[in-house]
Specification:
Blueprint lengths: L5 E2 L12 H6 L1 H12 L2 E6 L2 E6 L2 H10 L4 E2 L5 H4 L8 H11 L5 H6 L1 H21 L3 E2 H17 L8 H19 L12 H27 L6 H6 E2 L2 E2 L2 H32 L1 H15 L13 H13 L5 E5 L3 E3 L2 E3 L4 E4 L1 H4 L42 H18 E5 L7 E3 L3 E3 L4 E6 L4
Parallel strand pairs: 1-10, 3-11
Antiparallel strand pairs: 2-3, 4-8, 5-15, 6-7, 8-11, 9-10, 12-15, 13-14
Length: 444
Amino acid sequence: MVAEPRLAPGPRPHPLLGHIRAFRNDPFGFLSEAIRDYGDIVGLRLGLRPAVFLRHPDHIQVLLKAHRDNYVKQTLFRVVFGDGVATVNGAAWRRQRRLLAPWFQPRRVSGAIPLLHDVLKDLVRRWRPLADSAQPVELHLEMKRLALLFVARTLLGADLCSAATAVRNAADVLQRGMAERLFRIVRLPLWVPTPDNRAFLGAVKALDQLAYGLIAERRAARGESDDLLGALLEEEGTPASDRAIRDQILTLLLAAYENTGNALTWLCYVLARHPEVADRVHDELLATCGTALPSREALPGLRYTRMVVDETLRLYPTGWIVRVSRAEDIIGGYQVPASAVVFVSPYLTHRHPEFWPDPERFDPARFADGAPALHAFSYLPFGEGPRQCLGGDHAIVESLLTVAAVVSHYRLSLVPGQRIEPEPLFSVAPRHGLKVILQSRGRH
């Protein structure tokens, strides 16, 4: 007889809270212990709601590809993202994906490189007095600002330099507020005027004003523009609603600000921690493009630099993958109940010893030509399957150019005494920020 599927094993839950407290206090530590004790599929509870954690690539492949129609995005944070491409499901998602996809194709990404150059040249100029005075630089804030300017210039045709601080303040409130609401047993409606709710809605309002301001300026200009915002304004030849455009703008801005900004931060951290790697990147840059920022034609020649970027994204992937099951399913021989939260931590999958020997070691050679082939779902910096992040190629080009700009002009060294550890909110950031000292390599 074939045994009936059973629920995945896991640590004993609190009768009311389930595993919320342990998960909220130290997600990576808690999940690492659970993996050690119970294996690659762990049964959990978030309050009274069943949850399943997956680490093995085979199981993740079922979630994101083989049985993908059974798993949908949760809608808890539509107050922030509305019906943007990151939150909707089904036909609405497919329609939005078709609209957005052309703007992330290689031709478009390559065409944006001169705009990225302009943003990076400004960064290099702003950093010169900081390097001359050996003043510590809060790199996390700098890289998130850079990521915001990248997406604003290339996709929205906007200069958000003056708005960067407002975006930072609002995004920080929303990031922590969404994490808090996710792990609450009782969620008060946002209209209840608690201090946290007022701060959360105030942050949404600030970003609304920014998005609607961009829309109004573009509508008033009445000119044609070759960017994504222009395409959104005239979706398939029909003027789209301001609310629909707002949802896409905030999805793009916050994804770039948090995910790309955090990825660039970890990349600079790696360069500061491994000066021999930074020097080898510098040598490759000189041999490939001299003292200029890499052109589109030069990027394929930055083979070692790309290996450094890929390995950094392995050690420090910035996102989580979260789905909700529509109907009961089976993954890895275990039952997944209907309406269960099913989630993946690329941070932990990228440390699976079966697929990544000595997983905590930084080793760009893992991605060298001739290295063993990867399981398609063992490396997930941008997710996988049909809902893989559209901006992956954009992020890689931005990373390569940022490394080139920084390493060509500066050596980075970590400020002594700071504690660097990942804080796994919705995007994995350095918990206490990241301070560096800049040393000029000479003026170009």
